[in-house]
Design a protein that fits this description.
The complex is a heterodimer of chains A (273) and B (211). Chain A is built from eleven helices and six strands. Chain A is an alpha/beta fold. Chain A has a six-stranded parallel beta sheet with strand order 3-2-1-4-5-6, sandwiched between helices. In chain A, helix 8 links the parallel strand 4 and strand 5. Chain A is elongated, with a radius of gyration of 22 Å. The two termini of chain A are 20 Å apart. In chain A, 50% of the residues are buried. Chain B is built from six helices and no strands. In chain B, helix 1 crosses helix 6 and helix 5 packs across helix 6. In chain B, 6% of the residues are buried. Helices cover 74% and strands 0% of the residues of chain B. Classes of the chains: A alpha/beta (273), B mainly alpha (211). The interface between A and B is large, with 54 and 42 residues.
Chain lengths: 273, 211
């Protein structure tokens, strides 16, 4: 029997993982979501800003990372508008500003009074990564002279008196890699002393934790689990929370297979002696 | 059909669903449907990037400026064209000039920021007290310091890793293994999240079996 399990067709493993994702989606279990310290701090960084503060919200990802970053994009955006913050949207990735528009499209019906140019604006994508982040420190209007629609930013009330990072209470980066959170920390946070929080894909999390630990990130939202935590704190369950049962079940299945593989390995190793 | 078929949401959902299934078909085995979806993705992504780069970068920063008779912008324009010279081996040497500018600018910006962000801030964060606080904090700080020092020692190759050095190096390897384990766990979580995202799309938007 061990031999059969050892030579198990990998497609059966794929099937088991697929079922562990599909079944909890059809029949939610409602496993508890525990708020981690890093997500709580990210939430507090937004929550502590006084109403009317300007935040620079950068979507540094594309649809390939939507599964993890889009739920947190919606949750953070909702939180910003709950707190009556003014949101300046951008992106260091070409599809980032479109992701911001999409996230806003998901929640706009809940905030019908929000006005473009007064409460929020999308200044679009700018190529250059670190050069863009660095140039905002000198003069925001040089980095972004026009918004996404081509309107001069001086004509928009939200940006009329904007200078540089001193005009923003917080920088938020949803980061799928480079350019992303680390660039905002290095060229915005460290150099110009603006507070930066980030939401990242779980793959990038180990790279980002040292910056959180050293206080360079004021908060860190880690993957889909972090998105679910943020949704819970905002009080608006979304795709993050809905995906957590599937996430937990699939992890159990994978852990089960890892343990099984190790048991077979150890049995073979010591059985022969 | 206000905007034509390309803005029809149902068509978009069906195309997305079929392409998703085409990509998933690779799990059974490599096949032509998977490859077709892969090529479509690469083509669309590059087409999108090219378009958005032109309209967000080249047009406002070069074409429009030249149209307003700002002739200084000819310099970056020419430098940009020199990069394209790489495509011809006889003129490839021309690309070294803009490349030198980019490397110089990038290095100048990156070195200062890296020293401040990746070295000074991280060293400062490692200098933590191991006495005077509560027991858990002291222990955490001690583990952090031991982890950093032993991991760094593992990469120190000027002395042979024998005797005490071997033991210190082994502790460093253990810390590195724990880090790699954490990294692997996060990678698994990320991949499963991608699967969940696609499944949510298929079941919610395409099949309507969940809301």
């Amino acid at each position: 029997m061990w031999e059969k399990i050892k030579n198990l067709d990998k497609r059966i493993i794929y099937l088991c993982v697929a079922l562990s994702v599909i079944i909890p989606m059809l029949n939610p279990i409602g496993l508890p979501i525990v708020i981690t310290e890093e997500t709580r701090r990210a939430f507090q960084a937004v929550d502590n800003l006084p109403p009317g503060s300007r935040v620079l919200f950068s979507a540094d990802y594309d649809p390939g990372s939507e599964a993890e970053l889009f739920p947190m994009n919606i949750a953070i955006l909702r939180h910003c508008f709950q707190k009556k913050l003014r949101v300046v949207m951008t992106g260091l990735w070409p599809q980032g500003p479109a992701e911001m528009n999409k996230a806003f499209g998901e929640i706009k019906k809940d905030y019908p009074t929000l006005t473009y140019g007064t409460d929020y604006v999308n200044v679009g994508y700018k190529a250059g990564g670190l050069v863009v982040v660095n140039s905002i420190g000198s003069d925001f209007t040089i980095a972004f002279p026009k918004d996404q629609a081509g309107t001069d930013i001086r004509e928009l009330p939200i940006l009329q008196d904007v200078k540089n990072y001193s005009s923003f209470g917080l920088v938020i980066s949803l980061s799928a890699g480079s350019s992303g959170g680390v660039v905002w920390v290095a060229y915005g946070g460290t150099k110009y002393h603006v507070d930066v929080i980030t939401g990242c894909t779980a793959v990038s999390a180990t790279e980002f934790y040292p910056y959180y630990s050293s206080g360079q990130f004021k908060g860190l939202i880690n993957g889909l689990a972090g998105a679910a935590e943020y949704e819970k704190m905002v009080g608006a369950p979304g795709k993050g929370i809905r995906g957590m049962d599937a996430q937990s079940m699939s992890h159990l299945v994978i852990i089960g297979f890892i343990i099984l593989g190790n048991v077979i390995y150890l049995t073979e190793k010591y059985g022969k002696k | 059909m206000e905007h034509g078929i390309f803005y029809n949401e149902t068509a978009g959902v069906w195309i997305g669903a079929l392409l998703t299934l085409a990509i998933f078909s690779f799990l059974y085995k490599d096949n032509i449907v998977y490859r077709l979806a892969e090529y479509i993705f690469i083509g669309v992504a590059n087409g999108y990037l090219l378009t958005i780069t032109y309209f967000n970068q080249v047009k406002p920063n070069l074409v429009d400026k030249l149209a307003e008779h700002n002739w200084w912008y000819l310099i970056p324009g020419i430098l940009g064209l020199m990069m394209v010279a790489r495509l011809n081996k006889d003129f490839a040497w021309l690309s070294r000039w803009p490349m030198a500018y980019i490397v110089g600018l990038g290095s100048g910006l990156a070195i200062t920021a890296s020293v401040q962000t990746d070295i000074m801030a991280q060293i400062y964060d490692t200098l933590k007290p191991i006495m005077g606080g509560d027991f858990i904090t002291n222990l955490q700080n001690l583990i952090l310091i031991a982890g950093v020092l032993t991991s760094l020692f593992y990469f120190f190759f000027s002395v042979e890793h024998k005797g005490i050095y071997k033991n210190v190096s082994f502790v460093g390897i253990c810390f590195l293994m724990i880090m790699l384990g954490g990294s692997f766990g996060n990678t698994v979580m990320a991949r499963i999240s991608l699967l969940i995202g696609r499944m949510q799309f298929l079941m919610e938007r395409w099949l309507h079996v969940i809301s």
